[in-house]
Amino acid sequence: MRAIYRLSILGSLLLLAGCTSLSSLFFYPQSIWISTPEAANLRYQDVWLDAADGTGLHAWWLPAQGEGPDSNTMLLYLHGNAENISSHSHSIYWLPANGVSVLALDYRGFGASEGKALMPDVLQDIEAAVIWMKTQYPDKELMILGQSIGTALAINFTAKAGEQYDIKGLVLDAPFTGFPAVARSVTSRTLVGWIIWPFTILVPSRWDPIKQVQYLDLPVLIMHSPKDTVVPYKQGKKLYRQWQKAQPDQVLCWVDSKGAHIMSFAFPELRQAAYDFIQTKECMKLKE
After folding, report:
1. Is residue 264 within a helix (H) or strand (E), and if so which, with residue range?
2. Residue 43: CB partners within 8 Å, gap ≥ 6?
3. Which of 17-26, 76-85, 215-224, 234-243 has the weakest average pLDDT?
4. C-alpha 208 chain-centroid distance
């Protein structure tokens, strides 16, 4: 029993020592594609990009399509921490089908993108995607939609370069306050996790979203489900309240989501709430 305990401690230390770059603890890439937008009868284009450090990246461009008019808005989609765009993008296929163009990006190490995902290098990936979008479609308004860890990336990038690239707004599904907070939440759920829990102090907090909100003054929609068992609902609320204090005059909208983690867009009324925000950049009453 004592040997198992020692091995657990050793493994925990090694794990967290390797997580000081926010890589293996928070990013779980998969290179295999599950499907493409073609399976959903959507037109798309493979986009190949180069980050500033030369890392090759892959994304899908899904132009506005469907029966409705082009909204003249384009979204950069930043997915969650596992798999790749071939699975995550299913949650945003409704956007191009309703006239909103989307670039779905795979961070380095995910899907067909090269390299290894870690902070802050992935912010270069976002910049490469934004440059491509602004170059190819200079007349379209640019917004960013992030889910789970994608919300943290969206917040960090926009705090750094939002004005430079004229980002018009953020849609955030299941955001969290900070990386150490998420690590503590996850490790507190199991007995072995409690052994690891004290070492979450080693997880860097430099890129915590809650530290960046003071630098962000643009329309934001936050969606979070009370039933989320991955990123606690209270973390989304805490981020929202801190944002209100830091930017009292900002358009900052909150919508209680439904279902499990990042399942917001499975519900028509929540898709409509996001669409209305994208169109107006204002807080709208949720339509049941």
Report:
1. none
2. 37, 62, 63, 65
3. 17-26
4. 13
Domains and CATH numbers, the chain: 34-178+204-280 (3.40.50.1820)
Of residues 188, 159, 183, the one with CA closest to residue 172: 159
Strand-pairing partners, residue 75, are 102, 143
CA dist list (Å): 207 to 4, 95, 116, 127, 149: 34, 29, 18, 16, 11
Average pLDDT over residues 169-198: 68
Backbone angles phi, psi at 213, to 5 degrees: -65, -25
Residue (of 250, 199, 208, 40) closest to 120 by Cα position:
208
Residue 165: C-alpha distances to residues 16, 49, 158, 193, 286 (Å): 35, 17, 9, 41, 30
DSSP 70: P
Q: What single-letter DSSP state applies at residue 230?
A: S
Q: Tell me what pLDDT residue 82 has.
A: 85
